[in-house]
Amino acid sequence: MEAQENLAGQDQICPVCRERTVVPVAKARAAPPPSPPYTVSPKAPGIIATPLLISAICNCLAALAWLLTCFGVIFTAPLVVLLVFEFMLYADLNNPSKIVPPSKVKTIAICEIVAGLVSLGPLVCGIIILANLSRVDINSGKTAQ
Questions:
Q1: Would you list the DSSP string of 45-87?
Q2: Which of 38, 40, 48, 81 is most exposed, with minimal Cβ within 10 Å?
């Protein structure tokens, strides 16, 4: 049975058995567990963030490879620009206070597919991101059911 807190320790009549009894003092409620010293971002679902990071690494390697060939700056400059945007988007996805519009992720994924003309890694990663973008809320990390 339950009783009001202000009756704790008082002599009362039980409404069920009609016997006189002392209302017990409520036990102290356990303190909530301490919060962890760190927070884990609910953002950046792996199915989006991981291919983005892999594509950035592939673009970095491809830019270095193209820089050493006779085509040098022609192919290197666009890859470096895409590489910078991929790392910036990856940082935004991992920042809990930053809201990332899905259109931004979609634009980078399309650029990765175009970059697939010079490197296969970004092509595959861009397709994976576009295929999974509609299934994931990139700002909460939750997947659609």
A1: -HHHHHHHHHHHHHHHHHHHHHHTSTTHHHHHHHHHHHHHHHH
A2: 38
